[in-house]
Amino acid sequence: MKLNTPKIKECVLKNFLECVETHEFYQGIFRDISKKPLLIQDVTFDTCIFENIDFTDIKLENVDFVDVVFKNCDLSNQRFDKKLISRVSFSNCKLLGTSFIDSHIKDVSFLECQVEYANFYGSKIENFKVCESDFRWTTFSEVLFKNVFLDKVHFEEAEFFHTSLRQIDFSTCFIEGTLFNYTSVQGMIIDMFQSPTIVRLLGVKIKDDLS
Questions:
Q1: What is the C-alpha to C-alpha distance for residues 55 and 14, in angstroms, rounded to an integer?
Q2: Neighbouring C-beta atoms of residue 206, cutoff 10 Å
Q3: Which of 197, 144, 196, 152 is nearest to 170 (CA)?
Q4: CATH of the domain at 41
Q5: What tens digit of pLDDT does each residue of 27-68 get?
Q6: Is residue 170 situated within a structural domain?
Q7: Structural domain count, the chain
Q8: Predicted local confidence at residue 192, as pLDDT
Q9: Residue 206 falls within a domain, yes or no?
Q10: From the centroid of its chain, how far is CA 186?
Q11: Which of 80, 52, 78, 55 is nearest to 65 (CA)?
């Protein structure tokens, strides 16, 4: 699939606290921030790399992301509702309970991430790549998907309601217990071993002994 990766050029190591004070997060590399309650609001993270950062005590409010790389970061329970997330990669990150309601997500990838209990309600998601990640108990309701690649993603107990999955390949993913509504599953791609999950959803009973 065609995915525009973050355009990271001329980034230099910067002091995180100084950037908080100046409201300038541009062309910076940020690593191992000491734990301190902080509020970051009304800014754009533009052309940045964040490595080994725990955002637990950092509140991100009204923050957009353009050309950003997150490596080994914890962004759990952050709220990115109605925000722009463009050309962003998450690698080995935690986003437990993170909210992306009504957000615009374009050219975004997740690799080996924990994204359980996240909420993507009403989001527009285009050019989306997810590999070897955990999206259990995550909500995709009234989402508009375009150009999606999935590989070995855990979707157990996740919800896909009023969201077209046409031509999206789930054949390597784990969907036991995933909740779909009838319109969502039309045209989605699965393998033969996943078919009982979808058949049961349609109210069809599978007879084990056909003799």
A1: 17
A2: 9
A3: 152
A4: 2.160.20.80
A5: 999 997 767 789 999 999 999 999 999 999 999 999 999 999
A6: yes
A7: 1
A8: 81
A9: no
A10: 23
A11: 80
